[in-house]
Structure formats: C-alpha cells, structure tokens
C-alpha cells in the first residue's frame, strides 16, 4: 500500500452493480455552461446510482440490506477510463445471494470518536463505534442483528460534529432527535427504536445525520415533488416518538422516497 500513490479518485457505482475509479484529474475544469464529459458508459437498463470522491488509500464500507458489512480498499477497484463500464462489484466483495448494497461509506481511518449509525425499514436505529469495524475480514461481518422481515435502509457516519438524527417514512412522517439519545452498542446487538409509526403499513425510506439546525434538507416524493426545508423547522423530539409531518401527501405527490442534505 505504501507504494501506491494516495490520490483522489472519482468512484462510480451503477444500479446494476458495476464499479470503477477514475483519477479526478481526468475531469478538466470547465466554465459554467460547458457541455461536460461522459463519466461512465452503461447499458440501456443501467444508470449511475452513487458517486463520490475518495482517496486511493481510503476504505469503502459496503452495508447491505441483510445487515452485513464488507470492506474494500479504493485502490483495489480497477481504475478505468471515463467511458469504461467498470467491474461487477460481486467480483470484488463476497456478497451473498439476494444481498443488496444499501450504503457505501468511505473512510480514511477507524477513529473511535466516530460511529456508524444503521437505520432499518421497521424504524430501528443502531449506533456502533467505527473502531468496531477496524478488523477487516474478506467475508464481511454482521453489523446488526435484524428482526424477522426487517432490513437495513441506509447507514451513515456520525462524528464529533454530529448533533441530530433524522428519520423519514414513506407516508410522510419525520422525526428529529439528538444523537446522544442513542449510545454505542456492539456489533451483535439489535439497536433501539428510532421512530414509532402512526400507521402499521408505514416504513422508513431514508435517514440522515445532521451537524447543524442551519442545514437544509430536500425531501422527494414518488411523483418527483421536492420540498426544501431548514432542519430547525422539524421540531426536536425524543427518540421513539412519531415525529412530525415532513410532507403533505396526495395522489399528485405519491409517497416519500428519499431525502438529501443540500
């Protein structure tokens, strides 16, 4: 590893599971209004699902719907041209049948002051010290004990700047509570309730970690409706409550499908 230059790479992962890395210097700076350049060549039924910039010495943590966590050094991802398709991620990490990648988290280290926060479809939240995942294994590890019929929706890194947790549901609920309302737990534990559903058929679709009330969050619905709101507009409550209405839903909006900090 010491012989490999530690330089920034653009990592792209497609919906069908193809991954590649391209040196960031391959993308020339352009003026506003420029045409841009092709970032990846995909099949007609494929598209870029995730992309981020990470250094070659960083470790990528892949969190799956089944609660497993896998590791991959960025430099082990084949470097390709901007137009290359990439390599199937199943050839790089030992995914089980029916496992789906729900989160990819780059990290330069496993600092014990940071935590991995896991969110499940049924409203469970679990916080584990990042240091618990420093012992890299080729077959991955179980990161959380899941109830029957539950699965991971997403996972995030919380650090010393993180103040709040926000959880969003399909039927328009959102809860915001302080990170300190959860404590670090070991890998072989279930976690605690993060949100209580008002309707039994509801479920978690997305969640995030928040540094400041001054940040803004964009909530998006099935029909492409977006709502941009400051964090402070979501009332601060205790963990395991029902929260507040994030978006008024109708047949024109459809249900909530996700959110992103902006």
UniProtKB/TrEMBL annotation:
UniProt KW DNA-binding keyword: yes
GO biological process: DNA topological change
GO annotation, cellular component aspect: cytoplasm; DNA topoisomerase type II (double strand cut, ATP-hydrolyzing) complex
Keywords, ordered alphabetically: DNA-binding, Isomerase, Topoisomerase
Annotated InterPro entries: GyrA/parC_rep, Gyrase/topoIV_suA_C, Type_II_DNA_Topoisomerases
GO MF annotation list: ATP binding; DNA binding; DNA topoisomerase type II (double strand cut, ATP-hydrolyzing) activity
Matches recorded under Pfam families: DNA_gyraseA_C
Keyword DNA repair tagged: no
Name listed for the protein in its UniProt record: DNA gyrase subunit A
Species this protein is from: Aliarcobacter cryaerophilus
